[in-house]
Amino acid sequence: MSESLHEAVDAQKRRTGFTRIAHALRYSLAGLRAGWGETAFRQEALAAMLLIPAAFWLGRTWIETALLAGSVVMVMVVELLNTGIETAIDRIGPEWHDLSKRAKDMGSAAVLLSLLLCTGFWLAAIWARWA
Which residue of 91, 101, 110, 129 has the fewest CB atoms within a 10 Å radius of its CB? Predict the structure, then answer.
């Protein structure tokens, strides 16, 4: 690692207090902006804009509301992690490799499982409310 890059990394590690929080927030917002550039994340975020307010209407208790809203947010979190995995793999190289495929497939499976869990929570809440 070059000396100037090493110093920059050390400067990041040495931040404390509000400066550290401010920089972390800036990085997080940059990550959300990067996520918005991904079609799947954008679709999930738009769905969340409808589903999270609906969770407050559909949920009968704070626990139901938290599960409904939390499961929607969880899908977005898993999507961001999957995109991070895919981006890191693509950074390594464009050639096909069995381990790269495996990592991407596992990230995709994580998104699928989070979507199934979210769907299950919503169907159960709808069933309990109207059945």
Answer: 91
